[in-house]
Amino acid sequence: MLKVTDISKTFFKGTTNEKKALSHLSLTLNDGDFCTVIGSNGAGKSTLLNSIAGAYIPDSGTIEINGHDVTKVSEYKRAKYIGRVFQDPLKGTAAGMQVEENLIIASRRGESRRLRWAFSSGDHEKFRDMVARLGLGLEDRLSTRIGLLSGGQRQALTLLMATLKKPDILLLDEPTAALDPKTAGKVLKITDEIVHEQHLTTLMITHNMRDALKYGNRLIMMNSGTIIADYSPEEKQKLTIDDLLKKFEETSGAMSDRVLLG
Length: 262
Ligand SMILES: Nc1ncnc2c1ncn2[C@@H]1O[C@H](COP(=O)(O)OP(=O)(O)O)[C@@H](O)[C@H]1O
Ligand SMILES: [Mg+2]
Hints:
Layout: E1 2-11, E2 19-29, E3 34-38, H1 45-53, E4 60-65, E5 68-69, H2 75-78, E6 82-85, H3 99-107, H4 123-132, H5 151-163, E7 169-173, H6 181-198, E8 202-205, H7 209-214, E9 218-223, E10 226-231, H8 233-238, H9 241-252, H10 257-261
Parallel strand pairs: 3-8, 3-9, 6-7, 7-8
Antiparallel strand pairs: 1-2, 1-4, 4-5, 9-10
Helix pairs in contact: 3-5, 5-6
The chain binds adenosine-5'-diphosphate and magnesium ion.
């Protein structure tokens, strides 16, 4: 369970560049909730995910993961409990290392450094099966350096790595924004499967309203650092793109084309 209570975050406080990124935001996700997040550019979506991950410490408010107050726990210590996929395919994997080496590291998350590189018998087969399932032709490329893969292959691998050891929370920040539509669809489908199989508590930012409606059981809309709509599973089932557009217009007046058409 994720419980965010009344968090606020202002960047460059007291300077001419002051940016209020989060303002008294609260959000509770139950175990297994898959919540999509929409909102115009600068709404604070990434700052919310970054605060949950510990990249930024909020100025006020608290963040609890499975009953533990992690508000001030370092990003490094929190990483054990959190799986992340970023918008940038270059960010989640180590380019100079082989596919299999990346998977090994992910599968040893939270274990001592000494053991991190040790292959166990069966690892190779296990990894082969895992990447085969992605349907992206990676099963014969386990010893390929990550840097040689496509963006879609890298994002799918990042997702595998983020979920190899079941995370308490999975955070996805526009994971398919840099991919072509066909590959994006594949990666989203795999994401959806893994989230359901592992019953993962998930937050996924997307600029595509259709995807926001299609995936997950919850949906929140953000504007000016706060949540302006929080749809329950029952409400989300009936929700349409028209409803979302109306809500956007009510609150922000205008909306970027990216959000409209994405
Ligand atoms: N590291 C940072 N330093 C300064 N300002 C930031 C930083 N991260 C985000 N912001 C500002 O906070 C606001 C919210 O940004 P962000 O959370 O990235 O929005 P979104 O992901 O919804 O587009 C924006 O005004 C942005 O410029
Ligand atoms: Mg963002």
